[in-house]
Design a protein that fits this description.
Chains A, B: InterPro entries: ArsR-like_HTH, ATPase_NBD, HTH_MarR-typ, ROK, ROK_cs, WH-like_DNA-bd_sf, WH_DNA-bd_sf. Chains A, B: This is ROK family transcriptional regulator. Two copies of one chain form a homodimer. By secondary structure, the first copy, chain A, is α/β, with parallel strands linked by helices. Chain A is 43% helix and 18% strand. Chain A has three domains: 12-75, Arc Repressor Mutant, subunit A (Orthogonal Bundle); 81-198 and 379-394, ATPase, nucleotide binding domain (Nucleotidyltransferase, domain 5), CATH 3.30.420.40; 203-374, 2-Layer Sandwich (Nucleotidyltransferase, domain 5). Chain A starts with 11 loop residues before the first helix and ends with a helix. The model of chain A is unreliable at 1-5 (pLDDT under 50).
């Protein structure tokens, strides 16, 4: 097994060099000096120190640009990060290298309601599996996303409506103790937004929203290239925005919340009602076969041409679109990425979301606003979580 | 008459010195050196240059701190800015000094629908009056707010629903030509937010919303101390967020928009309906007396104990609260300031807005969230507009 017992960066300049290498790959010292607007001498000194810390290394001569040939610098090939993305009904775990390329990944179903001990133990088991697969017994850091509000500074989950037992649980410290490395905790939509920004459809986007439609519904907000967390760290909690005065009771205690109409749990509930009412032959057949229905079953019924199932998805998309239209008017983002398990239900959902959002927002804000599906799926959470901790490890 | 033909700041350090003096008042060179973390020699050199530019000057010995006595530096007493805040039904104009203290101000009613030539001519007439009152024939710059979307970089108003004739009109260049000074154009809520941040209840706030409830409804967004304008400059356009699927037709063409329920124009419309229906004796009396009703008349009816008028204000506040609750969930601000003419209707409106917002948002986001009325009123727009242009003149 290979060890990576490297230190953290010691100066802002070192952190900037590491971030450049992470985001662009190997660069010559001359290129680094250009990009950071410092002298080659400064770059050479900082790279030498980063090599001592086990974070970067020289990687042979760079291609000639004419004049003196420069030396390529790359991240240490030994850097490994762990990304853990925990949703309400499943988790993804992976190991990445220093550039956040996923080297090994695992996904399994899980139930967030089982509480932090059981869920984190399952996550750590997956972490050990992927670490063994890539042959390391130590990583430089781990990022974790959980499906609810997080006190980012304390590394603790806070009064999460769909996460009984997690309130105040010291997730960060517990995982840090187990893995023996620095850990960062954030909510899953922030982690997914960062992943999409690093390696997905939001690559290079400066102001965008990542909307996750899973069991619950949440939103990651990126402003000027950086995550916006709000004053209490709970920005983006759009699942509890009102769409109607009346409607199903939400986990938060209110009625008429978006999540209670359009989240995966709501879709499963409405599918069961449709099945029992006799309005949906396909869902009725699935219910009698399985004993219960999930949001995914609505997708199956849609693929079988079930009109009622299509109607359920359209209704869901309509309410999501109504909320997104409001956010577009308020926030005027440059891009909206839709992710989460419910997006696996096919194009009817995206079509309805787009239609309502474009129709209900002012033309100036939507004239050039792409609304697209996430490309990364589960891996986005792993990459985002790894990127979050990489930023902390690379920073001084 | 006194001339101020000063230049702009030439370096970021000069801009930082001017911003310190604007926001804190006269400071000694030693204090400036401390705050900007540079040597006294650097401060002395930059202050000397600012004096040549007519922007700052020495202002006598500073109080002794022990050791060598330092020299006080202050902004030039000749600096004058103009702030112009144009609303849908009225405008405020003022002249400020370099610290944005309002030296003279005028307010008059006006109708934005008369188009840019007539409205801007009226504003310029007021500008000349206030300039004459304070005895200057030249100012260093002017800021303007208008009640609709603005292309900030081009200085042009853009397809404003309540501003027929303004689409694409070169407001900035037209006013700049008339006044012979640099001009900045923004929408009125951004200007009001900046004014409130400089001299009102939002002083020192880093992340807050300024919600204007006038004829229309809009929102200025401040993130990390800076205005957030969105990708197309139209962030904060919350008047067209849906609150119901059906309802009165809005100026934007949709139905169910917040503004069509709760703006000043909507309130006037509903007041007339209530008067004609016989449900409101007070409003009926006001209507027969005046021939038409305004939002302010609802306030008069409330003060006369008219139950129907109170009900109108409660309904208005309820819809505003529903939208603000959604924005609190999404944005998690540290403060919400409510301004605009409709806030003159008394405490029933604020009470209803607060009640609904607090009830419909997650506790984590509202635990420590003040929702308060603007303190500055019309003067906030003058100060905000002046501050906007001061930032541009002081910057290199």
């Amino acid at each position: 097994m290979r060890h990576s017992l490297a230190g953290r960066a010691e100066s802002p300049m070192q952190a900037r060099i590491l971030a450049q290498l992470r985001d662009e790959g190997a660069l010559s010292k001359a290129q680094l000096a250009d990009r950071l607007q410092v002298s080659r001498t400064t770059v050479a000194a900082e790279v030498a120190r980063l090599a001592e810390l086990g974070l970067a290394q020289e990687a042979g001569p760079a291609a000639s640009r004419g004049g003196r040939r420069s030396t390529l610098v790359d991240l240490s090939p030994d850097i490994r990060f762990v990304g853990i993305s925990i949703g309400a009904t499943g988790m993804s775990v992976g190991v990445t290298d220093g550039r956040l390329t996923v080297l090994a990944t695992r996904h399994r179903t899980s139930d967030i309601r089982q509480g932090p001990e059981i869920v984190l133990a399952a996550a750590l088991e997956l972490v050990r599996e992927v670490m063994a697969e890539v042959g390391v017994d130590q990583v430089m850091g781990a990022g974790i996303g959980v499906p609810g509000p997080v006190d980012f500074n304390r590394g603790v989950s806070v009064s999460p409506p769909i996460m009984p037992g997690w309130d105040g649980y010291p997730v960060r410290d517990a995982v840090s103790r187990e893995l023996g490395c620095p850990v960062m905790l954030d909510n899953d939509v922030n982690v997914l937004a960062v992943g999409e920004q690093h390696a997905g459809v939001a690559k290079g986007a400066q102001d965008f929203l990542f909307v996750k439609i899973g069991t619950g519904i949440g939103c990651g907000i990126v402003i000027d290239g950086e995550l916006y967390r709000g004053v209490n760290g709970c920005a983006g909690d759009i699942g509890h925005i009102r769409v109607e005065d009346f409607g199903p009771t939400c986990a938060c205690g209110n009625t008429g919340c978006l999540e209670a109409f359009s989240g995966g749990a709501a879709l499963a509930r409405d599918a069961a009602t449709a099945a029992r009412s006799g309005r949906s032959p396909a869902l009725a057949a699935l219910l009698s076969e399985k004993g219960e229905l999930s949001a995914a079953d609505v997708g199956i019924a849609v693929s079988q041409g079930d009109a009622q199932a299509v109607q359920l998805i359209r209704e869901s998309g309509r309410h999501i679109g109504q909320v997104l239209a409001g956010l577009v008017s308020f926030f005027n983002p440059g891009l909206i990425v839709i992710g989460g398990r419910v997006t696996g239900l096919g194009h009817a959902l995206l079509a309805e979301i787009r239609g309502v959002t474009y129709r209900r927002s002012l033309p100036l804000a939507t004239g050039n606003l792409p609304i697209v599906l996430s490309e990364l799926g589960d891996e986005g959470g792993v990459i985002g979580a790894a990127r979050m901790i990489s930023a902390s490890v690379y920073a001084p």
